[in-house]
Amino acid sequence: MNFNVTTLKIFACEAVTCTENILQRNLNYPSMSAKLSRYNSSFTITFNRTVTNVGTPNSTYKSKVLAGHGSTLSVKGLP
After folding, report:
1. Comparing C-alpha atoms, which of 32, 27, 24, 25 is closest to residue 16?
2. Which residue, among 61, 56, 32, 58, has the nearest Cα to 46 in the 3D structure?
3. Is the pLDDT score of 26 beyond 80?
4. Rounded to two decimals, what is the model's pTM?
5. Which Pfam families does the record associate with it (predicted)?
6. Alpha helices in the chain (DSSP H)
7. How buried is residue 36: exposed, middle or buried, by Cβ count under 10 Å (0-12/13-18/19+)?
8. How far is CA 41 from CA 37, 52, 68, 70, 77, in A?
9. How far apart are CA 77 and CA 63, in angstroms?
10. How many Cβ atoms are within 10 Å of 70's Cβ, its own excluded?
């Protein structure tokens, strides 16, 4: 994605210093996507996200998962 310090500051709303290279899918940004390498192929991908409750205690967080046309999808959430 070739983000620089200025671009990251827009997403993070604060100055960011990167100390290591990480995969784009592990940026802990709320959206996630995966690109198929070829038509009609199977693959497994893991997206890690951390949720910090800054609201009222015992809040409920919901996600919405959509599969592309003609795709099947399996999702597993861990507490």
Report:
1. 27
2. 32
3. no
4. 0.44
5. fn3_6
6. 5-12
7. exposed
8. 8, 35, 13, 12, 23
9. 10
10. 7
> How would DSSP label each residue in 61-79?
------PPTT---------
Q: Position 56: which residue type?
A: T
For the record, the structure tokens of 48 come out as: 């890690």
pLDDT tens track for 42-64: 778 887 777 778 888 888 877 77
Categorize the per-residue pLDDT at 5 as very low, low, confident or very high, splitting at 50, 70 and 90: confident
CA 66 to centroid of chain Cα atoms: 14
* Structure tokens given for 16: 């960011």
* Cα radius of gyration (the chain): 16
**Maximum distance among all Cα pairs of the chain, rounded to whole angstroms:** 45
Token couple for 30: 């709320």
